[in-house]
Amino acid sequence: MINSNIITMVRKELIDAARDKRSVMAGLYYAIGTPLLMCAMFMLLIGQMTSPEDLNIKIENGNNAPDLVKYLSSKGITDGDNHNTNDQGEQLDIKDIRLVISDDYAAQMAKGMSAEVTLISDNSNEKLQNSIRRLERNLQTYSAEMGSLRLIARGIDPRVVQPLKVNVEDEATPDSKGGVILGVATMTMIYAVFISGMNLAIDTSAGERERNSLALLLSHPVSTRNIVLAKVIAVTVFAMIGLLLTLIISKISYAFVPWHELGFTVSISTEFILLMLLVGLPIALMAASLQLFVSFMAKSFKEAQSYLTLVLIVPMMLSMAASYNIAPDTLQWLPVSGQQQALIAFIKGREIPMLQLLLSSLTTLIIAIGLTLGMEKSLKSEKIVFGL
Amino acid sequence: MHHGQQMGADSLLSHIRHRRVPVTRLISALVITGLVMSLPALADDTVSGTPKESDQNSCYLDGLSEQLTCGYITVPENATKPDGKQIQIHYAVLPAIKSSGHSEALLAIAGGPGQSAMDNAAFFNRTFSKVRQQRDILLIDQRGTGRSNILNCKGEGFENALAINEADLDTTKETQACLDNLGNSDITQYGSLNALKDFEAVRQHLDYKKLHIYGISYGTRMAQLYMRHYPQVLSTVTIDGVVPMQQNVLAIGQAISRAFDLLLQNCADNALCNNQFPQLRAELEAVDAKLTIAPIVTQVRDPLTGESTQLTMTRAKFMGAIRMALYSSSIRALLPHAIHQAANDNFQPIMGLYALNLDSTGIAMGMHASVVCGEDWQRMTPSEREEINSTYFGQEMIKGFEQSCSVWNMPAVDESFSAPISSDIPTLVLSGQVDPATPPSWGELAMEKLTNAKHFVAPYATHGVAAQSCGNDLIAQLVETGGVSDLDGECLNKDVRRNFYLNASTVEAIPVNNSKQAVEQGDSHD
């Protein structure tokens, strides 16, 4: 099937593509930029998610409950109003959380009743979530400790108010905990396949037609099928190079993110890279034929660009749905999302759903072949060739 | 019954101590309670489940929801009889969060002697969360404890511990019964030195090139022995609540008396406490004197079941309950109130405190006896004996061990055992100023021949500094930098004390007109 004719033409397409700085750079930008952006994003996220060592809030009426204030302080939660600068004289970051201790706090406590404290904050502010939870948690432990000691003082074993002992056995492994993050990352990797070849696909179809070289090419004594195949292969090669680059950059850059602060690790193993390349190949073929097909259908270079942007949303949606586990049962049989779910399963150390993977890969290939055949047929029409 | 109690105790402890104060601490306290309240402690029967058989590699430990790695090595009980009885030494690994190789681990050694490190995995995990980001935490059940051929003793009279008068119990008989029960184990093989060889065998089995060691309480003795016998495999050492090799652990009576004094002093120095309990020392002495003459027998409700039962408040129960409460800074805060109430013939708070420790020991008393009888009892000099006998707890201890060690009949360790540790391994020595077991002077003694060590005394800490204030951060820093020169103990000065309870409900100042109001309200209810 693949004869020297095709090889010559693929080489021609690739040389052409390499000459076109724009399509090369587009692929590179994505492949290099996305993993780095992801890393930067995660680093920021981790900084926000982990509560700072010292949490400064505003405590009002603190002199009513010196023991509580001291307890919170021993847990790193301090009243920011008392000292607005730290030891080095830097301005403290005081979170917008207020803890108001009621006026009758001490009196209620002395009587053995519940003493009121009020936590005032904007709960919709996501940056505060962890700090609020940390404060709530510590207030609860303090309350539980006071309660236990009140019981002891009355000669009662505090165990009587703990009728259940709940044991939690989490079957997650350190790898699978990181899998949530990698699930999102696989989306960007699969997307690399679509992005990296896109400019080349437009250039070699709509672009070539606009430059009037397509008719010239078709007038040569090569079959239309070979021309189409050569274009598909060239775009696929570009897509795969983009994917490989994304993987390599990810492997290196992810190692610099302080994942351990979240309690797990994210590492991209060589096995994952190999599987990703293998699984990515049919997707790349489909992406290439799809992009070429759509570009040929468009009347101009510009039109092709707008169409493709719309078309790209489809795999994006599928991929996102898989990442966020929306309707996973149906999606695991569909192209792109099926492969992605298999990849996520692999990352999380679960068994790879082979049937689903094979079937979705097969569907992907069939779509690719169908589009290629469609292109071959359409290139026999003058309407397409001359963009009429 | 015993299983339930053990689990209950754990949840109770974590409840009260807000998952911070170590079970370890409480248990290592019992090093001696085993002797003070000799039988209740002897009556311990811990859970000794092996890791789940289905999967040798992954397991769950109490209080931790995540999967850990568990395993064991098989060693001869007696190294000179390699073909004789074989025992399993179980270990657990809390894997490093960041999987950066596998060449180093922090070995955390539990106290007691007789405590299981694996049963306290949640405590160690919490304390060493920073260390664990980069390094594995290794926990080993020392031979005779936990899952490693535990030497346990069941005692009689445990069910009605509240009613019993400890003076009526026959320690010799109980100890003999325990020994008979352990018939197929050679109890002489359960001293620290044999256990040390097990530790080293586990290290080699797991192929750790270097270890960082953390020992708490009795665990500091194991850590020091590690420094003496295998210095080449140690990167850093932390000893926390130190029992120096030169120190006979039986001399703890002085440390306990010192902690009692510090409690009374702290209350006197605190305006609120002093105002509420101006006669605290006199009250304590009065109750003690009264109970020395005869126990007080009353009807009470069982702290746990609520059923009516008899309480025989003895001197041992009273002093023991106070002593144990001194191990935790939060429970310690209740003591002035409890003593004051006892002086007014209300023993409810004392009974509540006593009940806390009834079954939460987790100490394998057989292994405990093997260690103390072989390594401390026999080396006691006449002058030491006289000194120990000068305190109440010392007398009780000598009385108890006199009887149990004569049954246990351990061969004495070599005299060189008591030599100070001479080492240049980076060593962090931690002591708590108000520690009721291992006073700061013991930490000082351990420093004698340590050339690369720093000793910090945490002013507000009780036994086990790592979990109090910033002790754990200091350890993480030591492990990270591999040296003690940059360590700064300033952060230990943060006041983490709790206010003293002023009545049965509050730690905050009682408003002046409060008592009057309460009476009025009470009236209106009638």
Features:
heterodimer; A: mainly alpha; 4 strands; B: alpha/beta; two-stranded antiparallel sheet; 21 helices; globular
Concise overview:
By secondary structure, chain A is mainly alpha-helical. Chain A is 65% helix and 6% strand.
Question: How far is it from the N-terminal to the C-terminal residue of chain A, by CA?
Answer: 32 Å
Q: Considering DSSP H and I runs of 4 or more, what fraction of the residues of chain A is helical?
A: 55-70%
Main sheet overview of chain B? 9 strands, mixed
- List the helices and strands of chain A in order: HHEHEEHEHHHHHHHHHHH
Task: Provide an overview of this structure.
The complex is a heterodimer of chains A (388) and B (526). By secondary structure, chain A is mainly alpha-helical. Chain A has helices at 4-19, 21-49, 66-74, 105-110, 129-153, 174-196, 198-210, 213-218, 224-254, 270-297, 301-323, 328-331, 337-347, 354-378, 382-385; strands spanning 55-60, 77-79, 94-101, 117-121. A four-stranded mixed β-sheet of chain A has the order 2-1-3-4. In chain A, α1 packs across α9 and α10 packs parallel to α14. Chain A is elongated and about 100 Å long. Chain B has 526 residues and is of the alpha/beta class. Helices cover 42% and strands 13% of the residues of chain B. In chain B, α7 packs across α8. The radius of gyration of chain B is 23 Å and the shape is globular. The model of chain B is unreliable at 1-55 and 516-526 (pLDDT under 50). In chain B, strands 1-2-3-5-4-6-7-10-11 form a nine-stranded mixed β-sheet, with helices on both faces. Chain B has helices at 2-16, 23-36, 38-42, 121-127, 129-132, 171-181, 192-206, 218-229, 252-269, 271-276, 280-293, 315-325, 329-332, 335-343, 348-356, 365-377, 382-388, 392-408, 440-446, 471-481, 514-525; strands spanning 58-59, 68-76, 86-94, 104-109, 136-140, 210-216, 234-240, 296-301, 308-313, 427-432, 453-458.
Could you outline the blueprint of secondary structure elements for this entry?
The complex is a heterodimer of chains A (388) and B (526).
Chain A: H1 4-19, H2 21-49, E1 55-60, H3 66-74, E2 77-79, E3 94-101, H4 105-110, E4 117-121, H5 129-153, H6 174-196, H7 198-210, H8 213-218, H9 224-254, H10 270-297, H11 301-323, H12 328-331, H13 337-347, H14 354-378, H15 382-385
Parallel strand pairs in A: 1-2, 1-3
Antiparallel strand pairs in A: 3-4
Helix pairs in contact in A: 1-9, 2-6, 2-7, 2-9, 6-9, 6-11, 6-13, 7-9, 7-10, 7-11, 9-10, 9-14, 10-11, 10-13, 10-14, 11-13, 13-14
Chain B: H1 2-16, H2 23-36, H3 38-42, E1 58-59, E2 68-76, E3 86-94, E4 104-109, H4 121-127, H5 129-132, E5 136-140, H6 171-181, H7 192-206, E6 210-216, H8 218-229, E7 234-240, H9 252-269, H10 271-276, H11 280-293, E8 296-301, E9 308-313, H12 315-325, H13 329-332, H14 335-343, H15 348-356, H16 365-377, H17 382-388, H18 392-408, E10 427-432, H19 440-446, E11 453-458, H20 471-481, H21 514-525
Parallel strand pairs in B: 4-5, 4-6, 6-7, 7-10, 10-11
Antiparallel strand pairs in B: 1-2, 2-3, 3-5, 8-9
Helix pairs in contact in B: 2-18, 6-18, 7-8, 9-18, 11-14, 12-15, 16-18
